[in-house]
Amino acid sequence: MKVALFKNIELDVECVSNDSLDGIDQYLRLSEYVDVEFVMLKDDELVKKQVDHINNQIEALKNDMTNKINLLESRKQELLALPDLTGE
Q1: pTM to 2 decimals?
Q2: What is the pLDDT confidence band of residue 54, given thresholds at 50, 70 and 90?
Q3: Residues 77-86 pLDDT 10s
Q4: 2 with 16: CB under 8 angstroms?
Q5: CB 1 within 8 A of CB 18
């Protein structure tokens, strides 16, 4: 596979890609194309890494939702603690 080093000018990050980024305005090719042969990971290694990544995403979402729920519960308690301003 032929790949080259590119830089995303807007995000100031570098990445390796085939020619799919060539000609896109926000990407600047930094190197000539080189032929690279990738050694594929074993399926069991790849599956474990994917499962670990998904588990991390699940935990992050749980933490985010718990924080949002806590904020809503806090706001609800603040509202319930307000004095009755209707005079009834």
Answers
A1: 0.50
A2: very high
A3: 999 888 876 6
A4: no
A5: yes
d(CA 5, CA 86): 67
46 and 19 both lie in a single domain: no
Q: How many domains does the chain have?
A: 2
Domain containing 18 equals: 2-35
Contact 5, 31 (CB under 8 A): yes
The answer to whether residues 52 and 78 belong to one domain is: yes
- The answer to whether residue 88 is domain-embedded is no
- pLDDT per position as a tens digit, 9-44: 999 999 999 988 888 999 999 999 999 998 988 999
Res 88: pLDDT: 60
- Tracing tokens 């042969």 back to the chain, one arrives at 37
- Asked if 64 and 56 count as a contact pair (C-beta separation under 8 A), the reply is no
What does the angle CA 77 – CA 83 – CA 84 come to, to the nearest 5 degrees?
Answer: 115
- Token pair of 51, please? 């499962």
